[in-house]
C-alpha cells in the first residue's frame, strides 16, 4: 500500500467501489472531520445568533456577548454529539 507505507495489508479494509483505506487512518480522519464540522457549524450558528440578537436589541455588545457565550458552550456539546452519532449504526450502509 503505497499511500500508507507504515501499514501492512491487515490494517486495510475495502470500503466498496474499489476504495481501500487504512483503518487507523479512517479513525483519525473521522475525529478531525468531526472537529472541523463542529467549528464550521458553530461559526455559522453563532453568526446567525449574533444577527438575530443585534436586530432585536440593536446593541452590538449584547449580540457579541451572547454569540461568544454560545460558541464556547455549544462547540463542546456539538463535538460530543457528533462522536456519539458516529457510534450509532442506525441509518448507515455497510
Could you explain how this protein is built, in words?
By secondary structure, the chain is mainly α. It has one domain. Helices cover 67% and strands 6% of the residues. The chain contains 2 helices and 2 strands, in the order ββαα. A hairpin with a 5-residue loop joins strand 1 and strand 2. The longest helix is centred in the middle third of the chain and has 35 residues, at 23-57.
Summarize it.
The protein is mainly alpha-helical and 94 residues long. It has 2 helices and 2 strands, in the order ββαα. Strands 1-2 form a two-stranded antiparallel sheet.
Strand tally, please?
A: 2
Instruction: Name the helicity range.
Output: 55-70%
Number of domains: 1
Which outline best applies?
elongated
Which regions contain 5 or more consecutive residues with pLDDT less than 50? Answer: none
Radius of gyration: 20 Å
Strand line-up across the major sheet? 1-2
Average predicted local confidence, pLDDT: 77
Strand percentage lies at 5-15%
Number of helices, counting only DSSP H or I runs of 4 residues or more: 2
Computed structural class: mainly alpha
**What is the string of SSEs from the N terminus onward?**
EEHH
Amino acid at each position: 500500500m503505497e499511500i500508507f507505507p507504515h501499514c501492512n495489508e491487515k490494517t486495510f479494509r475495502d470500503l466498496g467501489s474499489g476504495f481501500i483505506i487504512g483503518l487507523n487512518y479512517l479513525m483519525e480522519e473521522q475525529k478531525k472531520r468531526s472537529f472541523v464540522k463542529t467549528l464550521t457549524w458553530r461559526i455559522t450558528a453563532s453568526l446567525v445568533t449574533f444577527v438575530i440578537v443585534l436586530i432585536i436589541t440593536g446593541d452590538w455588545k449584547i449580540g457579541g456577548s451572547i454569540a461568544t457565550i454560545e460558541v464556547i458552550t455549544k462547540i463542546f456539546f456539538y463535538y460530543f454529539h457528533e462522536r456519539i452519532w458516529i457510534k450509532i449504526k442506525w441509518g448507515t450502509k455497510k
